[in-house]
Amino acid sequence: MTTQKTLRENILDYLGQQSLLQNSMTIVLPMSKKQLADYFGVRRPSLFREFKKLSDEGFIIVQNKTIQIMSKSKDN
User: Fold this and answer.
1) pTM above 0.90, yes or no
2) What pLDDT is recorded for position 75?
3) CA angle in degrees (0–180, nearest 5) for 35-36-39
4) Burial of 12 (0-12, 13-18, 19+ CB in 10 A)
């Protein structure tokens, strides 16, 4: 995935798309987190760090391959 967006923006867009596809605010990732990191073109620790930030800020709750979206806001 190559864009001018930040990793955070890409993650939020991806989660939003998955939410629409799965018709739920609680989504199951269709791939491993390693595959997701590869999809975004980043290393796994970078992906986990951004997930942690989003979780700490209350945007998401991550439990293994399940992510609950708490807010659709993209404000930093």
Assistant:
1) no
2) 47
3) 90
4) buried
Question: Tell me: domain 7-69, CATH 1.10.8.50, correct?
Answer: no
Q: Dihedral through CA 24, CA 37, CA 31, CA 20, nearest 10?
A: 20
DSSP 37: H
Block mean pLDDT (10 aa), the chain, length 76: 81 96 96 95 96 95 94 52
SS3 state of residue 24: coil
Query: Which phi-psi region, left, alpha or beta, contains residue 9 (left: φ > 0; alpha: ψ -120 to 50)?
Result: alpha
Tokens of 57: 């800020």
pLDDT of residue 76: 43
